[in-house]
Amino acid sequence: MNIAVVGTGYVGLVSGACFSEMGINVTCVDIDKNKIESLRKGIVPIYEPNLTEMVIKNHRAGRLHFATNLLECLHDVEVVFCAVGTPPDEDGAADLQYVLDVARIVGQNIDKYTLFVTKSTVPVGTSERVKDVIEKEIARRGLSVEFDVASNPEFLKEGAAVKDFMSPDRIVVGVETLRARQIMDRLYKPFTLNRYRMIYTDIPSAEMIKYAANAMLATRISFMNEIANLCDLVGADVNMVRQGIGADSRIGNKFLYPGCGYGGSCFPKDVKALIRTASENGYNMRILQAVEDVNNYQKGILFDKLSKVFDSDLKGKTVALWGLSFKPETDDMREAPSLVVIDRLVGAGCTVKVYDPIAMDECRRRIGDKVIYSADMYDAVEGADALLLLTEWKEFRMPSWSKVAQSMAKPVVIDGRNIYDKKEMDDNGFVYLHI
What we know:
Layout: E1 2-6, H1 10-21, E2 25-29, H2 33-40, H3 51-60, E3 64-67, E4 79-82, H4 97-109, E5 114-118, H5 126-140, E6 147-151, H6 161-166, E7 171-174, H7 178-188, E8 198-201, H8 203-234, H9 238-246, H10 267-280, H11 286-298, H12 301-309, E9 318-322, H13 337-347, E10 351-355, H14 360-367, E11 372-373, H15 377-381, E12 386-389, H16 401-407, E13 412-415, H17 422-427, E14 431-434
Parallel strand pairs: 1-2, 1-4, 2-3, 4-5, 5-6, 7-8, 9-10, 9-12, 10-11, 12-13, 13-14
Helix pairs in contact: 1-3, 4-5, 8-10, 8-11, 10-11
C-alpha cells in the first residue's frame, strides 16, 4: 500500500515513520527543502524518544521516502494524509490555509481514486471545505475523478508519541463511504491485531472528538490548579485531595496533577479554537474560557510566589530555572510556562540562569541571549538567590540537596510540579514553596 503524508512536523513525521514500520510504503512531503534533506541524512528536527531510530531504519529499508513536492508521489498513492500545521489566528481560530492548499494540489492533479485524510487538528466543517475545494479543482479540469475525504484526528502525547501510535488506545475515523472505511481498516489493521480499537463516526463528529478530548484534559488541569490555589489559602494539602478524588472511579486519577500551567502544541491551541468555533455559531463556551483564564494565571504563579519571598524586590537577584520544555521528554516550548516566567523575571531586573536536558537549543532559537545557558543543573544554581522547577525531568527528581545548598547564594526553592518532599526540603534548610 502506498500513501503520502504531507507535513513533516510532529504529527506527520511520527505518523509516516510508524506506518512505514508496519510495511506500508510512505512518502513524507514537506516544502522545507532543508528539512527534507536533513531527514534523508537521518537528522530528525524534533526530539521524540525512538523516532530517530525508526526514521533511519525505514528510510534505509526503502519504505520511508522524503519529497519536497506532493506531485513526486501523488499518482502512485492511494491515500494522502494531510498533517500540515493549523496555527491559531489572532482571534484563536485555526488557520486552514495550508490544509486547503494541499486539497487544491490534490484536486488539480489526481487522475484516479484518492482518499484525502485530514490528520491535522481542524475545526468542525473543515472536511466539507476540503471536499468542496477538490471538487471545484477537478471540475475546472473538465474531468470526473472519484475521491473521498475522511477525518482521522491524532491523539499523540509528546514524549510518548511513537508508543501511542504503535499501540493506540483508540483510532477515530470519520468517513462518508464504505470504500473509505475499508481503506482505513486495511491501513490500520496492523495496529489493531491484539484489540479492535477503531471508532467510526461521521466526519463532523470525528473533527469534534479531537477538540473535545483536549478541552476535557485541559479542564481537569485547570480545575486542579484552582483547587490547589484554594488549598494554599485554607491550609489543605492538594496532593491528598488529588488522591482522594482520584480514587473515585467516576473521576479517575489522570490529569489531576496541579502545576504551573499547561503548554505545548495542542491544549492551548485547541481550547482557543473550540472557543472560537462556538463563538462563530453564536454560543459562549463559558467553562473553556475559564479554563484558559486559569491557565494564563497559573503560568505566572511561580513568579508571584518568588516575588512574595523577596517582598516584591527582585531587581539584581539571580534566579535559576530547571526545565524549559512544557513537559518532559520533548524539546517543545510552545506556550511553555517557562517563557512567561522568563519574561517576568527579566522584566523585574533578574539575571536568569537556565538548564534543560533537551530544550536548550530550542530556547536559544526562541529568546536568544535573554538568559544564561548553564552546562548542567548544578551549574545553573551556582550563586542563585532562588531555584524554580518548571519541568519534572527525571534527572531533577533526586538532586544532591547538599550540593545545591552549598552552591546557592540563598536557599530558596519553588517547586512548580510538586515533585519534592517538603519535610526533606525543610530538613536541608531550604525555604520551600510549591503548588
